[in-house]
């Protein structure tokens, strides 16, 4: 191969030499031979250098790379970009050896990447920094039949949640989280906070979070939309709530011990960009306790309450609350137009737990909305009883630290050849608006099935029989019907 290359180069050189006008002298021929010999020597050096470079990179890289400690073998290797475009020059043995050496060098540096719930978690070599992308995709379809009003018999689709975000830590104590939701085809900032955490004593620690915070209020009201056992939270969680909703901008210190936690939240309004008037003010507290807590059994007790002061111009108390499914805008329990609120006070209790694969939870709450001009309080009352049974033997996804539901730990993932986790659920809930000119009352009974393919992917189906009695709005009087809803969800 080398001789062929040199011969080709020599022919090209000779072919490129201009013809002599006359017969050269001996001196001319000697000079020409010396020039061609120099060119041939230069070409030989270039060819030998190119061939040496194809076989030597792994040796050079190995001599420059630091020694890899034995512990580094446990650290996952990081993929290295190919030195050439793969569609043009496939990597040969030498290139693959270089990649392995580079990966070993990265592993030896201590930088690691672990895969959790579908997305990587990055850790710096010294443990000072961590970073994780977050995501949530919940897609729903719903159909309603049986209502005496044709405008309520709808089939709709919607994105319950479409979120992107991130979370991370700096050092041992500082942490942060940010999420944006696009589910209504609009940009909506949801969770966005910074925090500090530390240990007070063995078995007791705290954290303080500052920013746009999710309420710690009621059992399912404190559970994320991607973790609820039904497609929609209970009437207690959706109706016994501050006027500002599930989020507020403020501060939340939390205290944790082995069998429970307590939190206090002080917030203004949601993120709205309006600084022309004072914010409403909300103070909210919650505590839960697990008097029984073992590997397969938990007893849950909880109590919570809030007080909210409403500013003039921000005192509309009108409510249209979900009773038979989120994605039917005509199927709501309504108060009619209600203005002149000066504040709200709400409170509730929680009682439940699980034993093995079976769980049960009851909640009840009441909310008093204070009205101006000496009018009596507008009162909202709600209660619910929910339960579930994991046919596959998995434990309910109860989070004893926060007293809420989280992501399940599926014993046998579908992606590992198992059946996943299959859960049967049932719920009854009741809601009423009282002591107003246009009172309303409704209830719903739900049967459901959840199939968790793994710990972060699920299919859910809910069959709901509902009843409403509205005295305001388009759909008044007694009405009932059925709603069938389904969801596919992925949480990262």
Automatic annotation (TrEMBL):
InterPro entries noted in UniProt: Porin_dom_sf (IPR023614), Porin_O/P (IPR010870)
Domain of life: Bacteria
Coiled coil: 26-53
Signal peptide: 1-21
Matches recorded under Pfam families: Porin_O_P
Keywords, in A-Z order: Coiled coil, Signal
UniProt-recorded name of the protein: OprO/OprP family phosphate-selective porin
Source species: Novosphingobium clariflavum
């Amino acid at each position: 191969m080398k001789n062929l290359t040199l011969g080709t180069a020599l022919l090209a050189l000779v072919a490129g030499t201009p013809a002599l006008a006359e017969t050269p002298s001996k001196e001319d021929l000697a000079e020409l031979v010396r020039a061609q010999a120099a060119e041939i020597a230069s070409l030989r050096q270039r060819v030998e250098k190119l061939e040496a470079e194809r076989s030597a990179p792994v040796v050079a890289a190995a001599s420059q790379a630091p020694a890899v400690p034995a512990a580094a073998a446990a650290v996952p290797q990081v993929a290295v970009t190919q030195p050439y475009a793969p569609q043009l020059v496939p990597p040969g043995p030498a290139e693959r050896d270089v990649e392995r050496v580079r990966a070993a060098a990265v592993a030896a540096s201590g930088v690691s990447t672990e895969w959790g719930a579908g997305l990587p978690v990055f850790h710096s070599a010294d443990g000072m920094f961590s970073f994780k992308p977050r995501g949530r995709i919940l897609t729903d379809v719903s159909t309603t039949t049986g209502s005496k009003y044709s405008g309520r018999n709808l089939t709709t689709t919607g994105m319950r949640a479409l979120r992107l975000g991130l979370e991370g830590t700096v050092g041992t104590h500082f942490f942060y989280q940010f999420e944006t939701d696009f589910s209504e085809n609009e940009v909506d900032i949801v969770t966005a906070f910074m925090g500090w955490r530390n240990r007070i004593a063995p078995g007791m620690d705290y954290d303080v979070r500052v920013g746009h915070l999710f309420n710690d209020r009621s059992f399912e009201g404190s559970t994320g939309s991607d973790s609820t056992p039904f497609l929609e939270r209970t009437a207690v969680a959706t109706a016994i709530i501050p006027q500002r909703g599930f989020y507020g901008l403020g501060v939340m210190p939390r205290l944790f011990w082995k069998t429970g936690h307590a939190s206090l939240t002080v917030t203004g309004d949601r993120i709205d960009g309006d600084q022309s008037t004072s914010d409403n003010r909300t103070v909210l507290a919650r505590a839960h306790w697990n008097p029984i807590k073992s590997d397969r059994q938990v007893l849950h007790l909880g109590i919570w309450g809030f007080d909210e002061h409403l500013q003039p111009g921000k005192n509309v108390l009108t409510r249209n609350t979900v009773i038979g499914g989120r994605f039917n805008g005509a199927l709501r329990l309504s108060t009619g137009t209600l203005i002149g609120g000066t504040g709200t006070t709400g409170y509730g209790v929680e009682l439940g737990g699980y034993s093995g694969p079976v769980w049960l939870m009851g909640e009840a709450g009441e909310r008093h909305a204070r009205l101006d001009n000496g009018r009596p309080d507008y009162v909202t009352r709600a209660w619910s009883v929910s339960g579930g049974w994991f046919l596959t033997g998995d434990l309910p996804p109860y989070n004893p630290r926060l007293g809420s539901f989280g992501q399940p730990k599926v014993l046998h993932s579908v992606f590992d050849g198992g059946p996943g986790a299959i859960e049967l659920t049932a719920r009854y809930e009741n809601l009423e608006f009282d002591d107003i000119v246009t009172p309303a009352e409704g209830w719903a009974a739900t049967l459901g099935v959840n199939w968790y393919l793994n710990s972060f992917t699920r299919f859910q189906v809910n069959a709901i029989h509902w009843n409403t009695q509205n005295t305001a709005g388009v759909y008044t009087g007694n009405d009932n019907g059925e709603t069938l809803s389904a969801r596919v969800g992925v949480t990262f």
